[in-house]
Amino acid sequence: MFPSQKYDFQALFRSQGGLHLSCYLENKGALKDTEEQLSLSLAKAELELSAVCSEDQVRGFLKPLRMLQQEQSMLSQVNGHVAIFRKDRFFRVMSVPVDVSFASIVATSFHIKPLLRWQQIDQNFFLLGLSGHQVFLYHGNQFQLKRMPFEDVGRLRSFEQWIASLPFAERPPVFLVGSARQTLQCRRQFPYLFAKRLRSFKHFDPSALGEMCFHIRRTLKQDQKQRIQEAFEEYDDAKELGLASDQLPVIMRAAVQGQVRRLIIADAPKIFGKLDWSTGDYQVNPFDMDHEDDDLLDDLAQIVLAKGSNVVVASASEINAKTPALAILYPRSQSFLRPLPLKPARLALAQKPWLQLSEA
Fold first, then answer.
1. What is d(CA 260, CA 244) in angstroms, rounded to the nearest whole number?
2. Where are the alpha helices (DSSP H) in 241-266?
3. 86: pLDDT confidence band, cut at 50, 70 and 90?
4. Is domain 10-119 classified as CATH 3.30.960.10?
């Protein structure tokens, strides 16, 4: 009856092992340009897959993408940027409403960092409008708004029960619009909606939905910026207690053993290499070299998510350090903060400013 607050990204986040293809196509407003990006993705993927697969296997793996390439109407129907994911018997095309740059990556897991940014900003909300004896309930996010099948106040009880049943951290905000008397009565009758009144609007008018949503989305964006800032403040507090690290070797090792409570990663640059998901040992490569290379920060985020912890994606300027990642650790993980012995090649890489790496 009610929209789920869980994004359907879990199959992508948790998939690991075997060949994975992730393509991100930047929509610049011209279908021909998007088609050219898809052709380039196919050529790159075919080259990397040919090194480890037979010709028939490559043809079968890329068949859904070839069909998408031939069916131009399918691409033209996608609003926003395009993301394509392929592995074994899995194939998915989706519209991505956050900025992406062209990427075609064959690796042992999907490239999910753009999806994390999408999930991070795309907070769900409900708008409840009261007009006389009518109820107007809308479910929305940063990119769309849909009316729910509610027309009378009596049916709000089941909606309130659903809201109250959700874990506190997953409860979507409910914004209330109506006269002062109506909104006060509604908040008293349905206290577990935790509704916030939009005081800029003295009554509910469906023709003003656009303006109402603008106010709500602006508020939620400000809240999201505040949450990112709070993550940095939490990191600073943890650092004073010796429960934080900005050293990638330490963070990798802690992550694979489930010792990272919260991870903050930079959305750029991509740091290509290979990561051992069992030990946290890794190798940095100058570019995407083969079918096993992936963005190490992307792999790190997937490990932390798989352990049930939180990941925040910030811009490199927000992190404002010569490191691509910051980690808040559990108290029992202080042993990870001891300096790790580094091999000569690793030591040379560790001494380089991370944010000067090429954004390949």
1. 9
2. 248-256
3. very high
4. yes
